[in-house]
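Protein in question reproduced for absentees:

***
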Amino acid sequence: MKNTLLVTQLAALLLCGSGFAQPLRIATGELPWAMKHVPYETPIEAVLNGKCPEGSVSYALRSGKLPKGIELAGGGLRGTPEETGFFRFTIAATAQCAAATKTLQLFVTGKPVLFVDEREIAFEYKAGGAAPGTKTLLVSSTWPELPYAAVVRAAEWLRADPSSGVTPRRGDAFTGDAVALDVDPAKLAPGIYHASVMFYARNGANAPIVPVTLTVRE
């Protein structure tokens, strides 16, 4: 298989000439993380720069190892990984008159875990006075750039903004994604009110719940 790929690449270079720009390149960079035992699919993108006629691009695994359960097929990676770890491999892309290779890395890990920096939130309000100030929660995860949702439960007087977000990317200066909590107690009678905000992510391992208490005084 390696010999066939080498011959194909040499033929492609002879056909396309010796220009500075590569007629074919694999544009895919960092691959999305994968979860063990959760279906995974991501495309491998190849770009032709015009030196070659537009046409189909085929892919092959040149070296390295894919996770057990993942295969290179249909222009991308797909399957359900059955093992965890870092997997480094080289992909070869071949078009009508060009070829290119690129080394990629796929990380397979467990389901993402969400973290919220506060265990509970309390507001106080005096009837007829100014509304309590905003309180902020920071949401983080074992996964970078993880989409999540924030859902207010059992209260019309409580609002979480935004209702969805994304945890910080790797290397980001922020320790968490900010969610602002505000209350509207103007129509509430004196008393103690309870609600909560639940955070969850698709295929997440947990769904943290933050209790919220509002005390309305006369």
